[in-house]
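User: Sequence recovery, please. Input:
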């Protein structure tokens, strides 16, 4: 039960952090599509992580790989994808 409550909390707070991050990057020209990519990837990361930890433990490695892939997709967007391109375009004060 505690695991479930923890994941419910994360399902509320992590997408809110994505919204906050988007609002910060919007000043540099971020499009709304970035927001939805971040929210979708964060929900996939959390739901698949929960499945691997609490629901289908016998295939936890598979769920962990899926959760990790969503996490690394978010990291890619920030460090090498759309957010990095926005930072480079905005100039040295932002990058």
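Assistant: Recovered sequence (95 residues):
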């Amino acid at each position: 039960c505690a695991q479930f409550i923890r994941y419910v909390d994360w399902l509320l707070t992590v997408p809110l952090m994505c919204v906050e991050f988007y609002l910060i990057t919007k000043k540099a020209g971020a499009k709304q599509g970035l927001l939805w990519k971040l929210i979708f990837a964060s929900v996939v990361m959390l739901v698949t992580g929960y499945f691997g930890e609490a629901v289908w433990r016998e295939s936890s490695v598979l769920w962990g790989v899926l959760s990790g892939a969503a996490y690394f997709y978010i990291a890619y967007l920030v460090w090498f994808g759309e957010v990095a391109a926005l930072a480079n375009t905005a100039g040295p004060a932002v990058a």
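The chain has one domain: 2-90.
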